[in-house]
Amino acid sequence: MEILKVLEAAKRNRMGSGIKTDLQIGMDKLQIIYGDEALYNKFSPAFRHIEIDCCAPSSMELSSAVSAFSVYVESQATFDTSSLMKEVKNQSGLDNKIVTYNQGESHLLYNPVSGFLSIVDMDAGIGLYIVADMAAIPYFELAAPMRMILHWWCESHGKVLIHAAAVGWDNKAVLLCGPGGSGKSTTALLCALGGMAYLGDDYVVIENRSVDGLAKAGQKLEEPFIISIYNSAKFRWDMLARIPEMKDRHDNEPEEDDKGFLFLDRYEGVEVARAMPLKAILVPKVALLQKTVFSDILPSRALLSLASSTVFQMPGSGQATLRRSAEILRQLPAYGMALSSHNEEITHAMKDFILQLD
Amino acid sequence: MNEKFKINAPKVISEPMDHEQVVINLENGCYYNLNESGALIFRFIEAGYDTEEIISLLAKTFGGDREKIAGEVSGFLTALLSEQLIIGSESTQVSTDIAMANGLAAFTTPSFEKYADMQDMLLLDPIHEVTEAGWPHTPEG
Questions:
Q1: Within 13 A of A92's CA, how many CA atoms are on the CB side?
Q2: Which chain B residue has its CA at the smallest distance from A101's CA?
Q3: Against a cut of 0.95, is the pTM above it?
């Protein structure tokens, strides 16, 4: 298969060179090898909080020993991708269609808007993330790189990558889900600045873990955990008026991009957590109330909010993502959350709400 | 006229949630929440029952006026067809692996809520599936 040849060529091209980082994603490890320092500087900050020293004993009791999967991050300057890019551009055509290919354990996605090409073969344990133009990297690729590669990797490791935000308090996490503009990213950012644990504002991973202490004879109990993959937080520029402490703290500029973003792992006073038990699903709604109001909602409504945006953001994820999302929702309570217009009130309401969750 | 339908897969994906059914049309970006009676009919279609069989099953399970049930089923199927969630089927296969009444106490008018707020995302990023020829594959000519 041609995909495998391309991946093996990328592996040969690196042959011990490049900048290696190891990431701890839940119970598993993943290695990223950047073709040069420029690529490392652009794409590694989003993962800084989950980087580990591969040679040191792991703090994760049950984690696997060594990563069996490596992602090569390359640009035109570090790996000759000209014939490869020509092929996908032909497939994309003049109308700039996204190109997807899924066969067995091989997957490909080319996004003509960003020019990024993501390829994996899970059996070979190789991923390749190709940056078309280092001078024109969209902000969302810096804030949340390699989404599709991580999605495929999660699928083959019993996890699910979902389009949602997550925050925690008292070692209990909640998921905030809904389409763009529902208030999930802003709520997550306010909670992080208000002293709560931050796990992500756009994409997080859910992993089921065995709960030995509660297991009955012959019965394996599992508990869902939220796993953080990106420490970045995105915000609309007009939010700077609402959150003045963010001024001069963002990692891009208004004239460069539609939205601002910043890496929260180096933001003083903010705790970016790697993992936390998931206790509830919240579907926020901008309501401009005096006080934030939580209400029971039908699980089907929560599934629509959780799954629809994930399915459409991850081409090819389809039925499997919908099924996994439904499985998660069958384990957890779901609530609507009508947001107030007061920053501190939202954080206090969230803390109080999470404290009373089982 | 007795007709038979099937779910318009793989363009349409769905999942039961409690007694309702979440349905997503991947092609046009619309997604739906089918109420309990609608979800039951959807699962009968999935199982391979034709229209007459669905009406008979509902009348037998819940009682009531068969003509009224037939009218409501017909209207619901027309709506599902117009949303391209189901298409005509020639298959003769019928699955017996289905919880018939689905814990439903009564049959009410089947309906769905439709959401279209994901359409913009899809129109911006039309998905192009590569053909069976695989990839890389340079188009002829």
A1: 22
A2: B130
A3: no
